[in-house]
Amino acid sequence: MARTQTIFVTLVCIILSSARTSSSSAAYSSDVDAFLSCLSADIPPALIYTPANNYSSVLLSSVRNLRYVMPGTTGPLVIVAATEPAHVQTTVVCGRRHSVHVRTRSGGHDYEGLSYASVDPHRRHFAVLDLAALRAIHIDGSRAEAWVGSGATLGELYYAAAAANRTFGFPAGNCPTVGVGGHLSGGGFGALSPKYGLSADNVLDAVVVDAEGRLLNRSTMGEDLFWAIRGGGGESFGVVVSWKVRLVPVTETVTVFSIRRRRNESAVDLITKWQAIAPALPRDLYLRVLVRNQQADFVALFLGRCGILVDTMRRHFRDLGMAERDCQEMSWVKSTVFFYYGTADLPAEVLLNRSSNPYYYLKVKSDHVQEAMPRHAWEIIWSKWLDKPEAALLQLDPYGGQMGSISPSATPFPHRNYLYQFQIYSVWFDSRNGTAAVLEKQRVMMSWVRGLYNDLTPYVSKNPRAVYVNYRDLDLGTNELDEGGNVTSYAKARVWGEKYFKDNFERLAAVKSKVDPHDFFRNEQSIPPLPAAAK
Q1: Which residue(s) pair with 140 in the sheet?
Q2: 3-class secondary structure, 252
Q3: Which has the closest alpha carbon to 133: 229, 234, 44?
Q4: Quick one: DSSP state of residue 413?
Q5: Domains, the chain, ranges and CATH?
Q6: What is the pTM for the complete model shown?
Q7: Local structure of residue 353 (DSSP, 8 states)
Q8: Rounded to 10 degrees, what is the CA torsion of 409, 190, 471, 450?
Q9: β-bridge mates for residue 115, sequence order
Q10: What sections of 419-484 are H helices per DSSP?
Q11: CA distances, 342 to each of 194, 259, 298 (Å)
Q12: Closest CA to 277 of 266, 288, 291
């Protein structure tokens, strides 16, 4: 680990040094100096970070993927660590006034690093609003509702909800360090989704700073913008500083299990059958599959006791062989610990750990499956891809239940009618010294994830391939400016945008044209304004 930390620090120094060198003619030009002066008029200097004052530690505080401290990516000119909504308003107003675009970071889990870095050398002129300090959580137990700051993590929300009432839960993802702001902005899927839908389906209100620097809530922003921020991806329409969410009822005791089957223990047969079974299970039961290390782990959450779960599994999926010995009963909040850490022996307080700097590299691709893949396809995938030494992780998450009961146009997330979501993770560590060695390792791992993704083409979503925006993927395409060079090209953005949003993409662009027509909030995959000719 020490050698890994060494290379990590070395790479950070490279990227920050690169940013300073390239900035000699741009970053410290008069408009940026004026931007800093504008910020300082209303924001305490201790909250404004440049390469000259503790910039690197703040930048790295939420870096979740070491690919984005590699040479070739560009960090922000300035980081503003907002501690109140007024700081967000000031940053937006000053950015508009001095032509410095703003990117927003809550938890830093954007898989392509777009909340704090740029892979496009022409997109250097941006600041980062770090919302980590906007993490207050206020629970209204009588109404089963909560106001949550965008900088809070899912783990903090789970812990606070359960502390208020053991039967309060919230439908969201399994990683507790994910920021609430980014997760809800993309929709938000997790173990309670078959029962209660997406996180975004349970958002009741929000506070947003728009491109004019105004502080808006649901009644003042209007229903179009409220629709767009609940699944349309972050960083396109404004800065959401807090969310009002519905807490959902969970049983006082839930049951979990994790059953492991190797390839010679009928893993392929079980996965093949799981595809049709899992989306049709009772809504109180969520059963996903993790395929890694030559084995398949069937992991479940059931809102109820072990005995009922055993009977349910015997009726619906007898071949898995689930028995009482596989059960672990616990509170719902402890089940969120189990799903992330693989054990419930840790205290619930681990959900409050915001630790970052993961010391790994990551590439993720996602897809959706409409019709169950045949057994022979799984055999080929296992033999060709999962036997390779660089193979990492496949994650299969079932839809069904409440997910399929809600219209695909109710929120920007359109992928509700599939059987399940298919995620391919390529995760690697590299402690070797020398950038060339790191890049070679990256080439091998990226080749694996892309090769498997390509081979899945006959069996997954089509016209277009359906990708979950919270698994952002720059392989799908990146934005370009239109012919006038002022706003993002709608025609170019459709290439990637319709994969994330299908028919909802045009509506998102129409909202963008109303709330941010000058395209202030932009990055490599932000929503473009809809051209007048397309309206």
Answers
A1: 145
A2: coil
A3: 44
A4: -
A5: 2-130 (3.30.43.10), 137-249 (3.30.465.10), 254-330 (3.40.462.20)
A6: 0.93
A7: -
A8: -120
A9: none
A10: 435-455
A11: 21, 12, 12
A12: 288
Long-range contacts of the stretch 12-20 (C-beta < 8 A, 24+): 12/56, 12/60, 12/69, 14/71, 14/435, 15/69, 15/70, 15/71, 15/73, 15/74, 15/75, 16/51, 16/55, 16/56, 16/59, 16/75, 18/71, 18/74, 19/51, 19/74, 19/75, 19/124, 20/51
User: Cα–Cα–Cα angle for 409, 110, 169, nearest 5°?
Assistant: 65
Q: 219-244 b/e with 16+ CB inside 10 Å = b?
A: eebeeebbbbbbbbbbbbbbbbbbbb
Tokens of 304: 């109820």
Asked if residues 103 and 94 have their Cβ atoms less than 8 Å apart, the reply is: no
Kindly state the percentage of the chain with pLDDT values over 70.
Answer: 93
52 contact partners, CB below 8 Å, separation of at least 6: none
pLDDT tens readout for residues 105-163: 999 999 999 999 998 877 778 999 999 999 999 999 999 999 999 999 999 999 999 99
**Spatial distance between the Cα atoms of 263 and 259, rounded to a whole number of angstroms:** 13
- Comparing CA positions, the residue from 166, 105, 110, 97 lying closest to residue 132 is 105
- Residue 493, helix vs strand vs coil: helix
| Preceding omega of 464 cis (within 30 degrees of 0) | yes
